Amino acid sequence: MIRYLGDFILQENSPYHEPSQIRTQMGGAYGSPNFSSILKTIIVMVSDKELLAKYPLDAKNQYVVSHKDILQKMIEPGEGANACDFNDILLDMARDDAKTSKKMAKAYLKGVNKTGVEALQQSLRQIQQFLRIDDSLKQVRMEWIFGIPQVVSKSQFRTKQMQYGVELVEMVADEYYMFKSGYVKGVNDAFLGQLYKAKGRMDTQCVIGLKALLEMCLEDVAVAQYVFRQPSPSMQFARYTDWFFPYAESLRQSTLNQIMNSTTMLEYHKNRLESLDQIMGMKPKLDAVFTPLIEEQKTKLDQMDDSSFVGYKE
What we know:
The protein has 314 residues and is mostly helical. Helices cover 56% and strands 4% of the residues.
């Protein structure tokens, strides 16, 4: 049974596919088939130890159940009212499993890169649950999702010489840091970089992402510490976290000014204003989380002597 079900899902990537065989392609750029029921059947079968003992999987069937496309379909089971949520199963599979965790991080980060509100919210919920896993891979999961700060580099058009960081800065708002994921290719910026770039350009998506990030910081001190210790992408701020509440307050005020004389705009921005109010409501709790971290930074700076800054003054 696994042979036929897996072969149906994997199509041309199936180990049972023959080179001369022509198969009808399912789905396209605007929609994907819903494999939830088939995937659920496969999971039930491979989870039954007695059944596997009686009918062990051969090499091809093992290839089918461990194929990356099967995992991808579990992460994104497709469209439809009967779509199943495999998130609990995926979280169990990812625990202390670097290979599965990498694949999940890649799928979730690409989901955050989408501009659709529903797709973004779904990916953020998955990321929140993904980062709750408390095991040996917790730190690297944060690096994969949030990114690692890296100085921006660019080749100068005329001289072809490379320029780095502040050499590329013309205005104080210009970014000289980016956040690269240590694993995910094809995405220029990890979540922290994408979130900062959305500020002022895609404010609806930025508000949704910022609210989710603050919730993660409040529920997990490890996430709060990781985000707090990241540098600001531009010279406007000292730390990455410094832009959160000034941005939310400024956007809230400008949105209120827009809707002052228009009931249509009020309805349009209703969800944004609710999210901004929730963000500002988190400020006292986040200040309580960040204040000890600020004092820790100050103490370490006070303990540093001039020799610690050799190479930075010139």
